[in-house]
């Protein structure tokens, strides 16, 4: 049985990854979920597995060097899947220091602990792997309508968030190059799906539209993002962890480029289509809610990832067309409005305080 240390497993992508892995491998793996439970961590996302014998949650901050070392001493860790990160660009502009501490120093602590635990006189214990889950934002911005980010694209981050992630990626690369450390780096496009914190574009727009609030769109709304359904991302990470060539970077893209204003319009249309005739909220959900606001500082124009390498080497490609994924996502939020309400009111934090006495 392999033991997976999942950092940031109570967050959006991390919790979806855990749910996917537990469904796929069932009792054949053990998952140790390591999360400091900042505002973006929500253990309610993992109610489905919290009672399983092969799942364990540890409230640990990856910036705590001694606590991280203790995890490797206590468990025989085979895989580190490193999701934990401060990830909201606007927050990074307001407070860059938090992003550097978590995303850079936290990553360094994990690398050192894994290296110490796995290293032998002859190299490393067999079948160990560290996967650094990164972002396409480290590549900067594509200013035109053509072209894609490849694994060989030079790093050119434009925000404190993306700069901190690029720094973490380079630390991982340095450990591979200097110490032959068994690691991979993945860089994904924008994820969407269940359990996403409502500061992000898609859940924010769904929540605001249902409440009849303005739908704030930066600048002209013409900025382009590539969208990846979160379960497709989970499948890709699993493949990289098991079959990725040591030291390689793999881009994970969704082949779903959309302008931000297109996303907002699609959400409005999907809600109008899904909501029943008797639901009074249908009356106020319209394009009139769209409000253009001052553009974000250093706002990258376009991200577009070419996932050619992961397709060629690991036979992965996105399975969920955007039209299907966005409908599944809107339906999930409509079916889980209580979850959204608890998150927006901060009540979700009481859940883990009571459950874990923390």
TrEMBL record:
Q: Which SUPFAM superfamilies has this protein been placed in?
A: NAD(P)-binding Rossmann-fold domains
Q: What is its EC number?
A: 4.2.1.46
Name all NAD(P)-binding domain ranges. Answer: 5-328
Q: What class of enzyme is it?
A: lyase
Write out the GO biological process terms.
nucleotide-sugar metabolic process
Family (UniProt): Belongs to the NAD(P)-dependent epimerase/dehydratase family. dTDP-glucose dehydratase subfamily.
Q: Which reaction does it catalyse?
A: dTDP-alpha-D-glucose = dTDP-4-dehydro-6-deoxy-alpha-D-glucose + H2O
Q: Which cofactor does it need?
A: NAD(+)
Q: What molecular function does GO assign, one term?
A: dTDP-glucose 4,6-dehydratase activity
Organism equals Mobilitalea sibirica
Q: What's the protein here called? A: dTDP-glucose 4,6-dehydratase
Which UniProt keywords are listed? Lyase, NAD
Q: Which domain of life is it from?
A: Bacteria
* InterPro entries membership: dTDP_Gluc_deHydtase (IPR005888), NAD(P)-bd_dom (IPR016040), NAD(P)-bd_dom_sf (IPR036291)
